[in-house]
Amino acid sequence: MPGWLTGFGAQVVAGLIVGVILGLIARGQGGADGGSWLAGLLTGVGDAYVQLLKVMIPPLVVAAVVTSVANLRKVTGAARLAVSTLIWFAVTAFFSVLAGLLVGTVMKPGLGASVDAASAAAPSTTGSWTAFLKGIVPQNILGLGVGTSHGSPTLSFSVLQLLVISLVIGVAAVKTGKAAEPFLGFMESFLSVVQTVLWWVIRLAPIGTAALIGHAVADYGWGALGSLGKFVLAIYIGLALVMGVIYPVVLKVTGLPVRGFYRRVWPVTSLGFVTRSSMGVMPVTQRVTERSMGVPTEYASFAVPLGATTKMDGCAAVYPAVAALFVAQFYDIPLTVTHYLLIIFVSVIGSAATAGTAGATVMLTLTLSTLGLPLSGVGLLLAIEPIVDMGRTAVNVTGQSLVATVVAKRAGIWSKETFDAARDGMVDRAPSMADVADTAGSADAGSDADAAGSATAAAPRAGARVAG
């Protein structure tokens, strides 16, 4: 059988198909509310898989970032890489929000919506422009937070805070010098162990995918599509424009193969769709970005965690644009050119302002409050939140891998050998900056040797002509 039929991506597709079938069976049994044992099983297995992925995030971020900082000291232009990453985050967000505004303006999803106005309610959590400052300052050395869920205390972590803590520790270790070499050696070994365990978890993705999509089919509020179907359709058309037009143009301009990129990023996109969590998929995103896309570990371990907190073309660009227009149209509030410019500004800059906070709802509240639109409009859209969140997250995680790959290609640190070798699945080893440098050096040496050989061969002929 060809490799593409037995590879990891094909297994994820099989999981999606099986999950849809199981979800339809569970829905026929009444779903979770109807006491379906199958619906309960799908929910339990899916939640357990997402939790397994999230467990791996803190050790992966800490070990990968500390190790990368130590390795980046050998690389010139590390600051330029960071700036390029932020610029491409902004560029793709800009065109994504334009896609959302185009769809919302043409389709006018808020006009004629039959959703009950009584369901309008302001959310308990809102976005603010100071959230970034609050989110980036660690509450403790572990980046942990404590909350409550159903009356019980729960622990949570902030990837943004972990990223800051790890960067500081990595820089401090480099500045310490020889005394910190045992520590850096331990972190490299620890990262290898974490990546091995992570691969075991990732290999369970087809099972997790089946359970999560089955849960979505069985229990999500599909009945709300009757009153909000036009809005859901507008969101997915906007997301399709990003995935089918904007991203391919970026890839073409950069010189990356479009089909090859989507073929390799498929496990990330599909897991984002079923898990609805950029954080949960982050370990998979990083592994695919390194071992399928050919992005060196030193750079990917910085760009992917940063992207998981601030790079959200689905949640922070397309969705707030369409949703803001929906709310304005529903309440018959006219918007001016200034309002449209503010939507673009919030979508491009606001994702950083709300970094480390949860969900697209926070971005929507930031957008509505900036425009002066009623926050109660958020409540109108909560019924279909899980349905649109699947598509939003799929775009989010795809964009996170895309930007890292694009920046690596433009910076000359992209490993084409890894990309080509990963045609039918991830390779066994992630490329490093040293690998890319060695490959470039070998190519230069080969070119020099060819040039020298040509010159040597040409010399006698030239001499003969002179003698004649």
From TrEMBL:
GO terms for cellular component: plasma membrane. The keyword Isomerase does not apply. SUPFAM superfamilies: Proton glutamate symport protein. GO terms for molecular function: symporter activity. GO terms for biological process: dicarboxylic acid transport. InterPro entries: Na-dicarboxylate_symporter, Na:dicarbo_symporter_sf. The chain crosses the membrane at residues 7-28, 48-69, 81-103, 155-174, 231-254, 337-356, 362-384. The keyword Membrane applies. It is a multi-pass membrane protein. Keywords: Cell membrane, Membrane, Transmembrane, Transmembrane helix, Transport. It is found in: Cell membrane. Residues 449-468 are annotated as: Disordered. This is Sodium:proton antiporter.
